[in-house]
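Fold it.
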Amino acid sequence: MRVKSDVLIAYQNYQDAQASFTSAEAQLKAGELSYQMEKERYDLGISNIVQLTTAQQAYVRAQSDFASAQFTLMFQKLLINYATGTLQEEDIP
């Protein structure tokens, strides 16, 4: 019973990690686009340094969140393999 529970929990955590990854990927794309647009506005003199810096900070935060989501997804996949007894040495980075 415990093995079944461990596998189900690992699978649910993996699904949650996939959803977080998808969201982080979308936020990264949006953050990059927003920063590029704000940079163009700044270069044209329409925007100021505060707005540019704010957009840049949001983009950097999105990059960090994306990297974290990638790691979490990879880790959750390893946990599924461990819970199901299919973890191989070459699976471990």
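The mean pLDDT is 94.
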